[in-house]
Please model this.
Amino acid sequence: MLNRFGVGVALAGALLFTAPPAQADDVRGGQRAVIKTLRLTEAWRVSKGSGVTVAVLDSGVDPRHRDLAGSVRVGKDFTEGANPPGTSPSRLHGTYMASLIAGHGHGPGGKRGIIGVAPEADVLSVRVILEDEEPGFREFNSDERFENVVARGIRYAVDEGADVINMSISKQLATREERAAIRYAISRGVVLVAAAGNEGDRKTDGAFAPYSYPAAFPGVVSVGATDRRLRRATFSNWNSSVLVAAPGVDIMGAGPGDEYWVGRGTSQATALVSGVAALIKAKYPDMSPPLVARALTDSATDRPPGGYDTATGFGVVNAARALTEAARLAGHTEVATGPETHNPARPLAGGRKGPVTVVVRDDRLVTVYTAISAAAGVGALASLSVIFVLVRRVRREQMSQDA
Model:
């Protein structure tokens, strides 16, 4: 569902509840394919995301989930006023994404439950969307007060010290305020990662799937989803904004109230890529967003013929290889991509350093940003993505033996 501003994000899809795993060990077992594909075990020998804050711009994160407890800071709610007074947010989608990024598990040695890509990273929860079952969803999607919640959320996250901003959200129309907010974030060294969208089955002019925002903005790492064979998932949008891809089918994650879910979508793929970006920023905190994007693309596996296509971008993200590539790039001078200037005598909000106006001359870097920027002017063709489809729900009471 969209309002006239293209603000809303509908979290919809077919729900299929099946028999849950009997033990929490099965939850971790359900993550084996992702851990193997991203080569996380090897990556964790180098970085686990310590010291990095990932802002999750979403429907809210449950800070009490046992796999996230102690890692979540609840930030501002930009949807306030849409729901009736006293309504508690469901926070399903946001908790799910946060767990994929920074879940640390629970139990002895943290070996039960969800382990995120960057298990030592912190999460800043910034609520910018309502889930479709919330009573204020219709008002949120029709009231101009909420037109620029994403832009305001981005600026807030930057000023609160975020190193990476995860946006597993998608909408039809771009706004000037969002473009300015993204420029502001990149100029402050913040990596932005967003979902390419889930309308891959709906072609536009027979050539590509719709563009969605904020993923299609220049400078944002736009993420597509792959299936079990690491090919483009049928629902994943395919167009020239797609930079990289990650697994997006049958992805195990956490839900509010110590629940566990399995779902599919470019949302999940985006969260995994944000986790890899967090690993890089933890190891190389001064690495600029363009060089982080370069590390992700140059290290990708399952690369398409010719090195790039609109289905999976430069290929499937690989955490271990990305850290190796980041180490090679770390000797480069930082790239500044935003126009803001800064007085070094005055620290930025969140203690962030000001941008440095130098340029790295590198043809391959230009190639990466050509792929991103090719979609910059196609706002009218963009379309709302269904963020995910849940296919299995594991309730806490059904896993009580592992508490």
Summary: The longest strand covers residues 53-58.
